[in-house]
Automatic annotation (TrEMBL), chain A:
Gene3D superfamilies: Periplasmic binding protein-like II. It comes from Krasilnikoviella flava. This is Putative aldouronate transport system substrate-binding protein. The lineage of its organism: Bacteria, Bacillati, Actinomycetota, Actinomycetes, Micrococcales.
Automatic annotation (TrEMBL), chain B:
It comes from Krasilnikoviella flava. PROSITE patterns: ABC_TM1. Belongs to the binding-protein-dependent transport system permease family. Its main location: membrane. The chain crosses the membrane at residues 68-88, 109-133, 153-176, 197-219, 263-283. This is Putative aldouronate transport system permease protein. The lineage of its organism: Bacteria, Bacillati, Actinomycetota, Actinomycetes, Micrococcales.
From TrEMBL, chain C:
Residues 80-290 form the ABC transmembrane type-1 domain. It comes from Krasilnikoviella flava. This is Multiple sugar transport system permease protein. Keywords: Cell membrane, Membrane, Sugar transport, Transmembrane, Transmembrane helix, Transport. It is found in: Cell membrane. It is a multi-pass membrane protein. It comes from the Bacteria. The chain crosses the membrane at residues 20-40, 76-103, 115-135, 147-167, 188-211, 271-290. Belongs to the binding-protein-dependent transport system permease family.
Length: 577, 292, 305
C-alpha cells in the first residue's frame, strides 16, 4: 500500500509538470527593464559547465545588474557519476529553470515529458535570436512550439571550416627535432616511422635524463574504438560514426574491423612503431595526466592534436628557445575539418517548465545572443574576449584591442577585476555557463571583427617567436596552420549540417557496449603484439568475437546513420552554398 | 518491547523497502523523463539479453569465474584479520600497539585511484621496482607487472589484503575485549601458556564474530565492488580482472540503459539473499546457532 | 586487557615470538604508512614531476600551492562545518540506534523478533537504484535538507549485527544480575549493557564516523543548495572540475594560452593527492582517541561488587 505513492511518482512526476503551463496567453513582450524586478535565483542545469554553485565575479555582477537574478549552476560534469544527476532530476520532474542539454534524445524526451517550456509566446520579441531563426526553426521542427534555442550558431556558410586558425586534427611533431633531422618530406602515414626513429635516436633522453619515446598513448578516452588509433584516420578525412569511419565528402564508409580500414591501418602503424621501439611501454597502464606530464617534460615527439602537444609543451620559454610542436604535413593528407554549423551545435538552451519567471529567463537567453552577451558569456577556451571596456576597447580604426587589464587577465595568466566590475580574479568571474551561443569566429557587427580575440589583428601581431617564425618560413609564409592546409588543398570540410545521431535502441546499445569493449581490448593487444602473426591472429579473433556479439546489427545502424549524416551535409551545402 | 523498535522499522521500510518499488522499472524500457507510464513494457527482455548470444555467455562465464575466484580468495583469507588482531593483542608496549593500529588502517582511507598511482610509480616499466632490479643487474628488459594477464587474481588479492587488513581487524580487537577475563584466569591456573591461551580461549571466543562476518561475506559473493578492478584494468589483464561489478560498469554506465542496470541489481539482490539464507542454514547446522 | 599483569611467567618460546611479532608488525606498518607518505611528498612536489610518478623518497621542487589553492576554495569552511555536524550528529544517532537495536534483538521475548531482524539484515543486499531513492527523498521533502545525511543512515544492519554478536558473547552473569535486581529490559540496557559495550560502540562509531566523513554521494544526489555541501563533496567536485577542464582542452582550438608554470598548475592527480591528505589527516588525529576503548575490557568487578 505504501508502494503506491512511489510508483505514482515514478510514472507521473513528468505528466503533472506537463499540465501546468497550458494557459493560452498569447505573445508576451520581454522588452522591459529587469534590473528592478524581484531578485530571484535560478537553477541552471548545464551539461557544459565546469563549475558548480552560484555564479559570482564579473559575469555574475553583469547578470545581477541586468536581470536582478543569480545563477545557481548545476553541473553534471562536476557532480560526476555520468548521467546520474540528469536521470534523477528528470525522474523527479524538474531539471532546472534553465537547461543546457544535448539535442536529440535529451531534448526530445524533455519536450515529450513536459519538462521544457514552450517559449513561443516570448520568441516573437527575442530580437537577438531572430537572426538565427532558420536554426531555431530547424531545431524545433516537428515539436509544435519553441522549446529550445540552438548554440554555436553561425552566419558562416556550412562549407566553411569552423576551425579558423588551428585544425582540430593534424600531424604535429616536435618541430625543433624535425628540423634537426633536416625537414625530411613525409609522403604518407607510414613514412613517419623512419623519421620518428631518426628523431628519437638523436634524442633518446630529455635534458634531465628522462627517456624519450616518439609515441605515447593513453586509454582514458577510448569510446567506440581506441581513441588514439582513430586519430590517424582523421588525417585522411575520416570521422567516426559508431563503428563506421565516414569520409567527410561522403565518398567512403569503412567498418573499423575491416582489415583494409584506416583504423586497422593505424593499429598496424602503432604496431610497426612498437617494433621499432618508438612506443612508450607505459602507454597501456598510464592515465591521461601521466601522459600529459610526459608531453610537458618533452618525452613525447608526436601529437595528433594541436591542443595536446602544443598546450603541454609550447610554453613561452620553450618557443623562445625554438622548441615546440608544429604541423608537419603528410603529402597525401586530407585533414578532416568541421564545417560551421548553421543549425547550431550539439547543445541547446531551454527554459524549464517549472521556471518561476519564464519571461525574465527568455530575456536572459535573448541577451546571450546579443554582441554584449556573446562577448561576456562565450566559452573561455574558444577565445572569449570578455566585456568591452574591461578587457578590450575599440582602437582608433575601430578594430578591437586588448586593454592593459585584458592583456594581463587573458594573455598573461590573470589579474584582479576592478571593484566596479565586481572584483575578484578575472578567471573566477568568467561565465560558468561555458556555452557559446554564437560561434566565436563569427563577426561582431559592432566592430566588424570576429568575437574571438584570436582573430584580431592586434592579437596576431603580438604572437611571434623563433619556433613559429621557423615554421612559417619553412612552410611558405602561411597566415596560420589552417591557411597552409587550405592553400595546399590538404583539408576537407564536412559541411556543418548539425546532424543529430539517432539514439541507439536499447538492444543496439547493449550490443554496442560489449562490442566496443572487445574492440578496445583487442586493439591494444594488437599494437603490442610480438610479431605479425600474433597481430593477424588478434585481428581475426577480434572480428570473430564481435561478429558473435552481433556486430552486424550495430554496423548496419551506424552505416545508415553515416549515410543520413552525409545526406544532411549535402542538403545543407546546397541550401546555403 | 516491539513498540520501541517500531520507529526504527519504519525508517527501514521507508528508506530501504519503499524504494524497491523501483524494481518495476526492470520490466520496462524506462525513460526518466517520461515516467513509468510513458515507458514501454518489455517484460523479461533485460534478463534474456544478459544471455542472448553464445559469445556473450562465454564472456559471462569468464566474468563469473573471476568474480567467484576473487570472492573465494577473499573468503579463504578472511581469517587473517583474526590472526592480526590476536597477534597485535600480544604486543605489550601500548605505544607500539597503538601506532601499528593507526598506521595499518591508513591504506583503507586511500582511494583506489590513488592506490593505482602508487602502484604505477612502483611497478610501471620505468617504476621503482624495475629500476632497482635493473640497477642490480637482475633484469635487462623491464618486467611488465601491471599489464600482464598472469597472476591477476593473486595480485588483486594482495592489494585488497594490504588495504583492508588493518581496518578489518578493528572488529576483532573490539571483540577480544569482550572476552570474560575469568576464562583466562582459570586457564592460567591450569598452567596454560601464552599460545595455549590464544589457541584455546581467544580464538574460539572470536569465532562467533568471525562466523557472522563469514556468512555475510558469502552472501556478498557476487559483489566484489568495481573500483579496485577498474583502476587496475587494461587490455592485457582484462580477461582475468573483469568481475561482475566491473563488467556491468564496463558495458552499462556509458550507455543509458537504466532498466538493464535495475534488472541486474535485482537479480543480484535476490541471489545474495538466497546465499545468505543458505549460508545461515549451514552455519546453524554446524554451530547450532542461527546468525540471522 | 587480561594479560597486562606481568605475573604471567614467560615460557620458552616467548622471546623469539615477541621478536618476530614486533618485527612483523613493524614491517607491515611501514608498508601501510609509506603510501600516505608518498601522497604527502607528491602533493608538495612540482606537479609536472609528480605526475610522472618519479617522486618516491623525498619531495622535489617543493611548493605548497596545491594546499593554498584548495584552502582558498569558496565555501570551504562552511562545508567543513556541515561535514563535522553530519559526522557528529550522524555518528551519535547511528551508535545509539545500533546499540539499542543490537541489544533489543537479543531479547527473545520480543514479538516476531527474528522476522524484524531479518528484514533489517536483508536490506544490506538490496539496492533499489538511485532513481527510486531520489524520488523517495524528494517525496519526503528531504532533498536540500540536512536530515538527508542523518535519517537514512540511522539503521545500519552491519552495525546492529556487530552489536548483537557482542552482546551475545558478553558474560550472561551481567544481564542476569540486573534482572535479579528487578530492572526492566530498557533499564538494563541503559544501566548495565550500554556502559559495558564501549569497545564495540567505539568500533561502530569509527565505522560510522568515517563513512559520514567520507560520504559525498548523498550530497551529489540530493543537495543543490551550496550551503549544505559537505567537505568531501566540495573537494570531490573540485577534482572533477580539474578533470573536466582538462577534457575541455579537447574542444579548445589550438594553444590554450601560455601556461604560467607547469610545476604549480594543478592537475587532477595533484588535486586528488592533496585532497586525500587533507581528508585523511583529521581521521589520523581523531582515531587514537577511540583506541583507548579497545584496551578496556569488561569491568566484571563493577557487577560483582
Amino acid at each position: 500500500m505504501v508502494v503506491v505513492p512511489l510508483l505514482g511518482a515514478l510514472s507521473l512526476a513528468a505528466c503533472t509538470a506537463a499540465g501546468s503551463d497550458d494557459d493560452p496567453s498569447g505573445p508576451v513582450s520581454i522588452d522591459q527593464d529587469w534590473s528592478e524586478a524581484d531578485p530571484i535565483t535560478v537553477d541552471v542545469y548545464d551539461g557544459l559547465a565546469n563549475y558548480m554553485g552560484i555564479q559570482g565575479g564579473w559575469f555574475g555582477k553583469i547578470v545581477k545588474d541586468k536581470f536582478n537574478m543569480e545563477l545557481n549552476i548545476i553541473a553534471p560534469n562536476v557532480a560526476g557519476g555520468g548521467d546520474t544527476l540528469y536521470n534523477t532530476r528528470v525522474s523527479g520532474g524538474e531539471l532546472g529553470d534553465l537547461v543546457v542539454v544535448d539535442k536529440g534524445r535529451q531534448m526530445d524526451e524533455l519536450v515529450e515529458g513536459g519538462l521544457l517550456l514552450d517559449a513561443s509566446d516570448y520568441y516573437g520579441s527575442m530580437t537577438n535570436v531572430s537572426p538565427f531563426d532558420t536554426a531555431v526553426q530547424h531545431l524545433n521542427e516537428g515539436k509544435e512550439g519553441v522549446y529550445g534555442f540552438p548554440t554555436s550558431v553561425s552566419s558562416l556558410k556550412p562549407t566553411e571550416s569552423s576551425e579558423g586558425i588551428d585544425p582540430t586534427f593534424g600531424p604535429y611533431l616536435r618541430w625543433d627535432l624535425y628540423a634537426d633531422a633536416g625537414y625530411p618530406e613525409i609522403g604518407t602515414l607510414e613514412d613517419l616511422l623512419p623519421i620518428l626513429k631518426t628523431m628519437q635516436d638523436a634524442h633518446p633522453q630529455t635534458d634531465d635524463g628522462k627517456p624519450v619515446h616518439a609515441i605515447s598513448l593513453f586509454k582514458d578516452w577510448d569510446g567506440n574504438m581506441m581513441v588514439t588509433a582513430k586519430q590517424p584516420a582523421t588525417l585522411y578525412g575520416y570521422d567516426e560514426m559508431g563503428f563506421v569511419l565516414a569520409k567527410a565528402d561522403g565518398s567512403d564508409y569503412q567498418s573499423i574491423v575491416d582489415p583494409d580500414s584506416q583504423y586497422v591501418r593505424s593499429l598496424k602503424f602503432y604496431f610497426d612503431a612498437n617494433q621499432l621501439g618508438l612506443v612508450d611501454p607505459e602507454s597501456t597502464t598510464q592515465n591521461y595526466d601521466t601522459m600529459f606530464a610526459k608531453y610537458q617534460a618533452g618525452q613525447v615527439l608526436l601529437s595528433w592534436w594541436p591542443w595536446l602537444g602544443q598546450s603541454a609543451y609550447n610554453t613561452e620559454q620553450n618557443m623562445a628557445d625554438g622548441k615546440g610542436f608544429e604541423l608537419a604535413p603528410l603529402q597525401d593528407q586530407k585533414v578532416f575539418s568541421y564545417g560551421a554549423e548553421v543549425y547550431g551545435g550539439k547543445q541547446i538552451i531551454g527554459i524549464g517548465s517549472g521556471a518561476e519567471d519564464p519571461a525574465r529567463l527568455a530575456a536572459f537567453v535573448d541577451w546571450l545572443y546579443s554582441p554584449e552577451g556573446i562577448l561576456a558569456s562565450a566559452s573561455e577556451t574558444q577565445g572569449a574576449a570578455g566585456p568591452e571596456g574591461l578587457t578590450w576597447e575599440k582602437g582608433e580604426d575601430g578594430a578591437p584591442v586588448f586593454t592593459d587589464f585584458g592583456t594581463k587577465a587573458i594573455l598573461e595568466g590573470g589579474a584582479d577585476v576592478p571593484a566596479e566590475w565586481g572584483g575578484g580574479a578575472y578567471k573566477d568571474g568568467v561565465s560558468a555557463l561555458n556555452v557559446s551561443t554564437v560561434l566565436p569566429i563569427d563577426e561582431n557587427p559592432d566592430t566588424g571583427y570576429p568575437y574571438s580575440y584570436k582573430y584580431w589583428p592586434s592579437y596576431q601581431e603580438t604572437t611571434s617567436n623563433p619556433l613559429t617564425d621557423d615554421w612559417t618560413s619553412h612552410m611558405g609564409d602561411p597566415a596560420s596552420t589552417m591557411d597552409y592546409l587550405q592553400q595546399n588543398d590538404q583539408v576537407v570540410v564536412a559541411p556543418g549540417a548539425s546532424f543529430t545521431t539517432p539514439t541507439d535502441s536499447s538492444e543496439i546499445e547493449a550490443i554496442r557496449s560489449q562490442v566496443k569493449a572487445t574492440i578496445i581490448e583487442h586493439s591494444w593487444k594488437m599494437v603490442f603484439a610480438k610479431d605479425d602473426a600474433e597481430f593477424d591472429a588478434l585481428l581475426a579473433q577480434m572480428q570473430s568475437t564481435v561478429d558473435g556479439l552481433g556486430y552486424a546489427t550495430v554496423l548496419e545502424f551506424d552505416m545508415a546513420n553515416a549515410k543520413a549524416q552525409n545526406d544532411a551535409r549535402v542538403a545543407v551545402a546546397k541550401e546555403f552554398g | 518491547m516491539f513498540l520501541v523498535v517500531l520507529p526504527f522499522l519504519v525508517l527501514v521500510l521507508v528508506f530501504s523497502y519503499l524504494p524497491l518499488a523501483g524494481w518495476a522499472t526492470a520490466f520496462f524500457d524506462y525513460k526518466p523523463a517520461l515516467g513509468l507510464s510513458g515507458s514501454e513494457f518489455v517484460g523479461l527482455q533485460w534478463f534474456r539479453m544478459l544471455v542472448s548470444s553464445p559469445t556473450q555467455l562465454q564472456q559471462i562465464g569468464q566474468v563469473m569465474a573471476n568474480t567467484l575466484a576473487m570472492s573465494f580468495l577473499g573468503i579463504a583469507t578472511s581469517l587473517l584479520p583474526v590472526f592480526f588482531a590476536m597477534l597485535l593483542n600480544e604486543i605489550r608496549a601500548p605505544w607500539f600497539k597503538n601506532a601499528v593500529q593507526t598506521l595499518t588502517t591508513l591504506p583503507n582511507f586511500i582511494s583506489w585511484v590513488l592506490v593505482y598511482m602508487i602502484a604505477f610509480s612502483m611497478f610501471s616499466t620505468s617504476g621503482l621496482v624495475n629500476s632497482v632490479l635493473n640497477d642490480w643487474g637482475l633484469i635487462t628488459t623491464p618486467i611488465k607487472f601491471l599489464d600482464t594477464g598472469e597472476h591477476v587474481w593473486l595480485t588483486m588479492l594482495l592489494w585488497s589484503l594490504w588495504k583492508g587488513l588493518g581496518w578489518g581487524a578493528i572488529m576483532y580487537l573490539a571483540a577480544i575485549t569482550s572476552i570474560d577475563p575469568a576464562l583466562y584466569e582459570s586457564a592460567r591456573i591450569d598452567g596454560a601458556g601464552r599460545f595455549q591461551l590464544m589457541r584455546y580461549i581467544t580464538f574460539p571466543q572470536l569465532m562467533p564474530t568471525y562466523v557472522v562476518l563469514l556468512v555475510l561475506s558469502i552472501a556478498n559473493m557476487l559483489n566484489n565492488g568495481m573500483e579496485q578492478y577498474y583502476v587496475f584494468q587494461n587490455a592485457f589483464n582484462k580477461e582475468h580482472i573483469q568481475v561482475l561489478d566491473l563488467y556491468v560498469y564496463n558495458i552499462g554506465i556509458t550507455g543509458n540503459s537504466l532498466s538493464m542496470a535495475t534488472a541486474l541489481g535485482m537479480l543480484k539482490s535476490v541471489i545474495s539473499v538466497l546465499l545468505l539464507v543458505t549460508a545461515n542454514a549451514i552455519a546453524k547446522r554446524a554451530r547450532g546457532t542461527s546468525i540471522i | 586487557m587480561p594479560k597486562t599483569s606481568d605475573a604471567l611467567k614467560r615460557t620458552r618460546g616467548d622471546v623469539p615470538f615477541a621478536l618476530v611479532n614486533y618485527v612483523g608488525f613493524l614491517l607491515f606498518a611501514l608498508l601501510c604508512a609509506y603510501p600516505f607518505y608518498f601522497l604527502i611528498i607528491n602533493s608538495v612536489s612540482a606537479n609536472d614531476v609528480s605526475a610522472l610518478g618519479d617522486i618516491r623518497l623525498w619531495p622535489e621542487g617543493l611548493h605548497l600551492s596545491n594546499y593554498s589553492q584548495i584552502l582558498q576554495l569558496d565555501g570551504l569552511s562552511a562545508a567543513a562545518v556541515v561535514s563535522v555536524a553530519r559526522t557528529v550528529i550522524g555518528t551519535a544517532c547511528t551508535v545509539l540506534a545500533s546499540a539499542f537495536l543490537g541489544y533489543m534483538f537479543t531479547q527473545e521475548r520480543m514479538w516476531k523478533r527474528s522476522l524484524w531482524y531479518r528484514l533489517i539484515i536483508f536490506t544490506m543486499y538490496f539496492s533499489a537504484g538511485l532513481i527510486p531513492l531520489y524520488i523517495t527523498m524528494k517525496t519526503l521533502g528531504l532533498t536540500n535538507s540536512f536530515w538527508v545525511y542523518i535519517l537514512p543512515a540511522i539503521v545500519q544492519p552491519f552495525n546492529i549485527i556487530l552489536v548483537k554478536t557482542y552482546v551475545e558473547s558478553m558474560p550472561r552473569s551481567l544481564q542476569e544480575a540486573a534482572e535479579i535486581d528487578g530492572a526492566g529490559t530498557i533499564r538494563t540496557f541503559f544501566r548495565i549493557i550500554l556502559p559495558n559495550m564501549t569497545p564495540i560502540l567505539a568500533t561502530v562509531a569509527i565505522f560510522t564516523a568515517v563513512a559520514q566523513w567520507n560520504s559525498f554521494q548523498d550530497t551529489l544526489l540530493y543537495i543543490t543548495d551550496q550551503k549544505l555541501y559537505s567537505l568531501q563533496y566540495l573537494l570531490y567536485t573540485y577534482t572533477n572540475q580539474a578533470n573536466s577542464l582538462a577534457q575541455a582542452a579537447q574542444n579548445a582550438q589550438g594553444n590554450l594560452g601560455a601556461i604560467v608554470s607547469a610545476a604549480t598548475t594543478q592537475t587532477p592527480t595533484s588535486i586528488r593527492m592533496t585532497v586525500a591528505v587533507l581528508v585523511v589527516l583529521p581521521i589520523i588525529f581523531i582515531y587514537p582517541l577511540f583506541q583507548r576503548y579497545f584496551v578496556k575490557g569488561i569491568m566484571l568487578g563493577a557487577v560483582k561488587g
